[in-house]
Amino acid sequence: MMIITQKITSLAYEIHDGMFRKDEELTPSQRGLAVRRMPSLLEYLSYNCNFMGILAGPLCSYKDYITFIEGRSDRMAQSGENGKEEVQYKRTEPSPNVAVIQKLLVCGLSLLFHLMISKMLPVEYNIDEHFQATASWPTKAIYLYVSLLAARPKYYFAWTLADAINNAAGFGFRGYDQNGAARWDLISNLRIQQIEMSTSFKMFLDNWNIQTALWLKRVCYERASFSPTIQTFILSAIWHGVYPGYYLTFLTGILMTLAARAVRNNLRHYFIEPPQLKLFYDTMTWIVTQIAISYTVVPFVLLSVKPSFKFYSSWYYCLHIACILVLLLLPVKKTARGKNTQENVQLSRSKKFDEKENSLRQNSFSTTNNVCNQNQETTCEHSSLKQ
After folding, report:
1. pLDDT tier at 33, thresholds 50, 70, 90
2. Where is pLDDT greater, at 190 or 79?
3. What is the CB-side half-sphere exposure of residue 276 using CA atoms within 13 A?
4. Residue-by-residue DSSP string for 48-89
5. Active-site entry in 114, 207, 209, 320
6. pTM of structure
7. Among candidates 9, 66, 76, which has minimal Cα distance to 36?
8. Contact of 171 with 72, CB cutoff 8 Å
9. CB count, 10 Å around CB of 269?
10. Would residue 126 show up in a list of annotated catalytic residues for this protein?
11. Catalytic one among 240, 266, 344, 363?
């Protein structure tokens, strides 16, 4: 049900954002790839109820889905050196076999690791009274990290399997990389290496549940009139369900994200050079990030209020307090959006209107030239026939 809800809102916002544009607004090179009409009832139901992604997803945009259904996914529009989209014309029909086999291997290893390790290192042991009373702080931190590390592979298994199923059907082809190898990560939902090596809260979020994060960015973050981070986290909590642990996790995540952003903006530039200093900074931020993420998501696993507060109280809410102190003591850089949102919205709208008007003028000019050229060609053909 949540996947269908995501798809419906994604389709609505694609229409709102102008994904379905008139032919006059498209260049000739874009007309073969862009969606130019409203979906039919069959296309709408096919997109929302396709069997490949109806249960675990991953979410995909309607534009990508209909491109795959119409067999145009082997002509991907990729950004060139100048930043403009360049059409990647068909070479040979790409085979997903290698990508599917690799992802199935990841699924098997993730499932095996989860079944073996999670029973030995349950997350619930973090709130065990004997453990809380006898364990030292380093032991508590290490066990917290390892127990959450053992809990993550079940998500790796589900999302990677769903991605492999889509790839096996031919969906998920992104194009070719610089070496000419086919890329099958168009709708991938996670990047395991980047998750486990995250050196910032943002890096973790950018590589975890990627398609849902993009959906949240489109429907909430880019449209929020104030506090987009807070609104997006609250919407994500509501979308996940009614368990109190979800709300505790995402409310804590708001503090973590804002504090991590403030620390990064104020301190990181002091640790870029020399390389040894940057390595030290990356190591420390990796340790802090992994502990902070594990601390944040414990209620997400425990689900209930009492166990969640029991865990946080055993840590004396130390990371909550640290985040609040960071936000109070470190200056937060205000973005242009934060300074004057309404003004930026009006400027963006006027800019879009000007761009649209200019594009229409250019298209009308090019259309007139095309008509003139066609008339000249027709005249030449008639004269040649007469001769």
Report:
1. very low
2. 190
3. 0
4. HH-TTSSSS-----HHHHHHHHTT-TTS-EEE-TTSSEEE--
5. 209
6. 0.77
7. 66
8. no
9. 9
10. no
11. 240
